Amino acid sequence: MIRILYIGWVGHKNLGDDLMKDLFEINLKTIMKNKDYSLNYGFTVSDEKIENYDFIVLGGGSLIESKCINTLNRALNKGKKVMVWGTGVDRLKKTAIYNLNNQKNPFNKNFKAVLNRVANNAVYFGVRGPLTFNFLKQMGVEENKIEISGDPGLLLKPTKKIDPLKELKWDYKKENIVGINWGTSHNKIYGKDELLVEDQLVNACRILVEKGYKIFIYNVWPKDIKPCERLYNKIQDKENVQWSPTLYHQDELFSLMETFAFTVNFKLHPNVISAAANTPFIALGYRFKIFDFAKSIEMEDFVIPTDSRQIAKKILRLENNICSDRSSLLNKFNHYRDIYEKKLLSSMKVFYLE
After folding, report:
1. What mean pLDDT comes out for the span 37-58?
2. Cβ partners under 8 Å of residue 48, min gap 6
């Protein structure tokens, strides 16, 4: 019996973190079909709990931070095997996106040494994107100890799709629908002004309606529901705009996204699911992790920083780019999904080989 502990921010009804956990579980089950294993989940892990496991896995999300890396280090101290599976760095200053040189270490003074020890001793250290990869190199981690594995959300292949016609006000076969994801990060975003972003989204949605689109607004976290409702009410167009308070399962959201012309997303994993569903996306770059994921699939030109005062104008410019170059965007999605699927699934074979 191989005992595995998956570390992730799970159980908070946040679609992205639960998606990462579910995909690890689903793919592990496939790989380990002829071998006995146990899988449990946690975030804050005591030394006593670590003793109960053979493998400690740092799951997908944005978990390269002091607490999680220290947990892996404590696991190494106890002779356990550790693995990093597609996670990334977040909460760095916007300037770090373009230049990591001269950036102050945002973590405690011991973080660099601990991070390097974990990277040197992990059975696998896969990260979400090139920005995280470059950050780790800046922290002294050797390139051959880490690889860009991509965001595990790209592995999504739904098993329980829903009928979009039962969720949408319009027939998606006859209408061009834009999916809009909105929510809150409690103003911890680039620009620190979510209401300003929201008002620019209102303008963009109104213009998109004038161009013939229908708008479907959705959320991915309970705390996002009120901001989505407020966005819907501000647009003031019940005929052409629909808001759903439903917290969709990732398979359900995938089903809806497949029918959309494109999506505009605030949170990270609606963008990831959109790419998995072969639907072009425009990402609102509210934190470092958005830029990291977009760069991992050559979509950085489709990120609009949330401190921009021209969000509506940029959405409309990118809408035009999507219409004129859709096939090349879908080719990118297919190309990178294939690359990252091979890396992520290959890394999980280490459990079977034990």
Report:
1. 95
2. none
